[in-house]
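In this section we walk through a basic example: taking a raw amino acid sequence and producing a predicted 3D structure, encoded as discrete structure tokens. The instruction is simple. Fold the sequence below.
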Amino acid sequence: MKKTLQLLWNTFCMICTCILIAVAVFTTLVDPADSITSNILWQILLVSLLCALSTLLYRYSNTNNRKELIIRIGFHYLLINVIVLASGALFEWYRPSNLGSLLTMLAAIAIIFVAISIISWYRSTRDAKILNEKLAQYQGHKSPDR
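The resulting token sequence is shown next.
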């Protein structure tokens, strides 16, 4: 349970950071705004939490089946799109009727999804390497009498 909460917290923080960067880029370069309302901060926290919770799709998968993993990733990506696009429309982050606005949101979602996936994969690989090294050290220090 502790590891799951830690994973959710780390994912939540990465999502929040990426969304804040996306908002900064969007409000500075794409569609400049003099100011944004403070409500957006709570909205970002809520959307980040919902997206972080969606990562639980991976938590209970103990399969090495490549096809199942691809299906989970695809479903997760679609779920993230639904969460962000629905929330964005509700919170008026973009205009769903404006194709350019919609495409910008889809591009931002894709970039953030790929960035967080790469960071998560790197962290998992690093953690697995550390655990394997510690296991090898432990097995090397075990005496045959035990």
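Looking at the output, two observations stand out. DSSP finds five helices and no strands in the chain. The mean pLDDT is 88. In the next section we compare this with other chains.
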